């Protein structure tokens, strides 16, 4: 397995780490490579075959792919690819555990492929190399045209890495409504959470965001937000987004939040269409524990989803506990972690793009120009 090396340079008394010092080095040469391909996109069949052939024949790698990808009818009919296909190791999501045997992940597609790759590893995540072959590509900095050169560089090591933090999320059921009412009214000591007495029904690692919304109900969502056991506020509106810095450029950005560089240790809380003019998105320190429950006087239930998946209903007596995971996603940079992020802002979100003001022909005419 690879090691992420953090080189700390002493700059001042606070020992601030230079983000550019985050590098990938290999303790031993990578052997097992997981290739994730965007499903239901026929345009990716040829790139998928190309990179598998390159990894198996030229690099002598063990290549893992999903069984549904290997069983694709297009691949089955390709006799020329048959010898490569027979050498692929297959797995099924939810049935086969490959978390301990993968050295490198290669994603072919859009941002969704990286989110899916993250969901396959609920513990430590291997380095991820993402090629832009999808519709958006904010998280996929590599161009496929130069895949041989780029993959060879990564195998040699010493590549720049962005450590994308994830959220550790628990859904807890069967909490006594009276206990939640006491917490809401501040009748319990600070830091005390009776939700510990409930039953954990789901635990996930989330890369982008946790979204709590009103679902199909016509009523406003009404949920309580706790921070480290203390009631902070009630959210009345369409819902609330709890996102990582990586997720700050996704749904949270569409809801009016600021965009945070993935190296900033933080959690962002963004209301969705709040019924209050003064409810603005807030950023809290990484490591705090957030808890979301239905308010005791909520008229309807709420719904929660995790990176757009596993959507389920939240009722009175349920809570969602969220904190920073200790298992980030090491995303390999094409250039470096600063340049890649700003290039994605400009190319994908058209950040600060406007028509340039023309230069004055004569400086004496400056009084006649428009601002």
What can you tell me about this protein's structure?
The protein is of the alpha+beta class. The chain has two domains: 2-8 and 20-164, Probable inorganic polyphosphate/atp-NAD kinase, domain 1 (Rossmann fold, 3-Layer(aba) Sandwich), CATH 3.40.50.10330; 167-324, Tumour Suppressor Smad4, CATH 2.60.200.30. It is globular. It is built from nine helices and 21 strands. 19% of the residues lie in helices and 32% in strands. The longest helix is centred in the N-terminal third of the chain and has 14 residues, at 45-58.
Quick description:
Helices cover 19% and strands 32% of the residues.
Give Rg in angstroms.
24 Å
The count of domains is: 2
Order of helices and strands: EEEHEHHHEEHEHEEHEEEEEHEEEEEEEH
- Largest sheet, strands/sense/barrel: 6 strands, antiparallel
The number of helical segments is: 9
Q: Would you give the CATH topology of the largest domain?
A: Tumour Suppressor Smad4
Structural shape: globular
Supply the CATH superfamily name of the largest domain.
Answer: Probable inorganic polyphosphate/atp-NAD kinase, domain 2
Q: For the largest beta sheet, what order do the strands appear in spatially?
A: 10-9-20-17-12-13
Key words describing this protein structure:
single chain; 371 residues; alpha+beta; Rossmann fold; Tumour Suppressor Smad4; 2 domains; 6-stranded antiparallel sheet; 21 strands; 19% helix
What secondary-structure arrangement, pairings included, does this model have?
Elements: E1 2-6, E2 22-26, E3 32-37, H1 45-58, E4 62-66, H2 67-70, H3 73-77, H4 82-87, E5 89-91, E6 104-109, H5 111-119, E7 128-132, H6 147-156, E8 159-164, E9 167-173, H7 177-184, E10 199-206, E11 209-213, E12 221-227, E13 230-237, E14 239-243, H8 251-254, E15 266-272, E16 282-285, E17 290-294, E18 302-306, E19 309-314, E20 319-324, E21 329-332, H9 337-348
């Amino acid at each position: 397995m690879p090691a992420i090396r953090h080189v700390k340079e002493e700059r001042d008394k606070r020992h601030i780490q230079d983000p550019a010092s985050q590098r990938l080095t290999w303790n031993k040469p990578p052997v097992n490579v997981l290739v994730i391909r965007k499903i239901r996109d026929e345009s990716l069949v040829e790139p998928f075959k190309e990179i598998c052939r390159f990894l198996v024949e030229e690099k002598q790698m063990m290549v893992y792919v999903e069984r549904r990808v290997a069983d694709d009818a297009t691949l089955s009919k390709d006799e020329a690819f048959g010898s490569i296909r027979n050498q692929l190791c297959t797995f099924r999501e939810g049935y086969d555990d490959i978390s301990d045997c993968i050295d490198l992940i290669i994603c072919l597609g859009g941002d969704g492929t990286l989110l899916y790759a993250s969901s396959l590893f609920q513990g430590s995540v291997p380095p991820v190399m993402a090629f832009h072959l999808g519709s958006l590509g904010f998280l996929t900095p590599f161009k496929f045209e130069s895949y041989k050169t780029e993959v060879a560089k990564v195998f040699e090591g010493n590549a720049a890495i962005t450590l994308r933090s994830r959220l550790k999320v628990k859904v807890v059921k069967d909490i006594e409504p009276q206990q939640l009412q006491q917490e809401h009214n501040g009748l319990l000591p600070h830091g005390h959470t009776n939700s510990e007495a409930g039953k954990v029904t789901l635990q996930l690692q989330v890369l982008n965001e946790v979204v709590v919304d009103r679902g199909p109900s016509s009523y406003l969502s009404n949920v309580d937000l706790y921070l480290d056991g203390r009631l902070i506020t009630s959210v009345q509106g369409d819902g609330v987004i709890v996102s990582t810095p990586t997720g700050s450029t996704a749904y949270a950005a569409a809801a009016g939040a600021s965009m945070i560089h993935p190296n900033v240790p933080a959690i962002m809380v963004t209301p969705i269409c709040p019924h209050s003019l003064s409810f603005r998105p807030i950023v809290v320190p990484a490591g705090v524990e957030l808890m979301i429950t239905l308010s005791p006087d909520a008229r309807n239930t709420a719904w929660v989803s995790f990176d757009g998946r596993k959507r389920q209903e939240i009722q009175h007596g349920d809570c969602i506990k969220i904190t920073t995971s200790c298992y980030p996603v090491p995303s390999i940079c094409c250039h470096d972690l600063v340049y890649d992020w700003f290039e994605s802002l400009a190319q994908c979100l058209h950040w600060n793009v406007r028509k340039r003001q023309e230069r004055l022909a004569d400086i004496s005419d400056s009084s006649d120009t428009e601002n």
